[in-house]
Amino acid sequence: MARFDMTGAAETGPSNTIDETLFQLGIASSTGRDGEPDLIAAHKWFNLAAMRGNGEAARYRAEIAMELTAGEIAEAQRAAREWIRTQ
């Protein structure tokens, strides 16, 4: 399962940018920081952060995609589109 060693990553200083928030939601989802890991949700959050120019999120999204089925990726992409639509 994709789990990232983010020791110290949150200590780089506070960020109020939406892409950083989306990235952190991806980290929380992928690591199970707030419960069980949810790779579909992680893919969604990393996808949204990557769309805003976060290169690290794009790399994590690609790594997670290798562990998901095509159907799960499609589900994550639908969730990302829905999130954009509601913003």
The overall pLDDT, averaged over residues, is 86
Radius of gyration: 12 Å
Classify the oligomer.
Answer: single chain
**Spatial shape:** globular
> Biggest β-sheet: count, sense, barrel?
none
- Give the helices and strands as they follow along the chain: HHHH
Structural class: mainly alpha
Would you mind describing this structure in some detail?
Residues 1-15 have low confidence and may be disordered. The chain is globular, with a radius of gyration of 12 Å. The protein has one domain. The N and C termini lie far apart (30 Å). 63% of the residues lie in helices and 0% in strands. It is mostly helical. The longest helix is centred in the C-terminal third of the chain and has 17 residues, at 70-86. The protein contains four helices and no strands.
Brief digest:
63% of the residues lie in helices and 0% in strands. It is mostly helical. The chain has one domain.
Notable characteristics:
mainly alpha, disordered N terminus, 87 residues, 4 helices
Topology, element by element:
Layout lengths: L17 H14 L7 H13 L3 H11 L4 H17 L1
Helix pairs in contact: 1-2, 2-3, 2-4
